[in-house]
Amino acid sequence: MPQGGRRVAAPADLDPKWPDGYVDELRRAGGKEKNIPFCLSWVRRFFAEHPGTNRRDLGGMEIELFLGRTARRAQLAGTTGTG
Predict the structure, then answer these.
(1) How far apart are CA 25 and CA 12, in angstroms?
(2) Would you list the domain boundaries of the chain?
(3) For a tag on the chain, would you pick the N or C end, based on fewer CB atoms within 10 A?
(4) pTM for the predicted model, two decimal places
(5) DSSP state, 1?
(6) pLDDT tens-digit map of 29-76
């Protein structure tokens, strides 16, 4: 997503419907169409790691941990030649 201009930390719609509401918010935030499927995949994987947890109870710390694990898995896959 573009880094300049208005920054969106959370959707304006406090109860977006999955996935259409999220797609609408990504577009409103300036997300590129080609990136939206990747964003949805990321959100699905993130919530799958936190089953039963209300999405409003998940915050920056959980996102940082998720991204760190995701980056480490990608690095390991790159060094071992597996995907």
Answers:
(1) 7
(2) 13-48, 59-83
(3) C
(4) 0.65
(5) -
(6) 999 999 999 999 999 999 999 999 988 899 999 999 999 999 998 888
